Amino acid sequence: MTTLQAPAARRSITDTLATGQRSYSFEFFPPKTERGERTLWQALRRVEAVNPTFVSVTYGAGGSSRERTAAITERIAEETTLRPVAHLTAVGHSLAELRHIIGRYADAGIRDVLALRGDPPGNPRGPWVPHPDGLQHAIDLVQLVRRCGDFDIGVAAFPERHPRSADWESEIRHLTAKFRAGAGYAITQMFFSADHYFRLRDRLAAAGCHAPVIPEIMPAVRFEQITRFAELSDATFPDQLARSLEAARNDPQAAHRIGVDHATELAQQLLDAEAPGLHYITLNHSTAALDIHRALRLPAHPAQPLS
Ligand code: FAD
Question: Is 294 left (phi over 0), alpha (psi -120 to 50) or beta?
Answer without folding.
Answer: alpha
